[in-house]
Amino acid sequence: MDFILRKITKEDDAAVAELVRGNLKKFGLDIPGTVYFDEGLDHLSEFYNSEDRQYYVAERNGRVIGGIGFARFAARESTAELQKLYLADHAKGSGIGYELIRFIEEQIRMAGFKQAYLETHDNLQAAIHIYEKSGYREIERPKEVVHSTMNRFFLKIL
After folding, report:
1. Which tens digit of pLDDT belongs to each residue from 32-43?
2. What is d(CA 137, CA 131) in angstroms, rounded to the nearest whole number?
3. Fewer CB within 10 Å of terminal CB in the chain, N or C?
4. Does the pTM of the predicted model rise above 0.90?
């Protein structure tokens, strides 16, 4: 691993928000119904600060190059939602995405959850590929979906 993985801090908030918004914009998802416009996106360290809500940043040479988190998914018993897996362009295609997924799944297990759920969009084909190769299976859209633009939903038994 040529990067450091650590919990998000207040000092990371702006870099992570920029990373998320930049990726969404690149794929035409800088639209309502995505995390792009979530008020909390600029303050993720405040949200991800408990046992059942955590976020980690990948850092290389003092710069945030990616991140991934999870939060309890109340709609399904013993389920956490894998959230906000984003990478800087120069970090894509290097296997870091798979490493982040393996890491967060272990954190989800340690927090006592038995399943990982996630939602994504057709425009994010590379992400869908990583999720499927990581053992996630597509499911029907849960009625509790918050980001209405998302149109692909996956679940994995951990």
Report:
1. 989 999 989 999
2. 8
3. N
4. yes
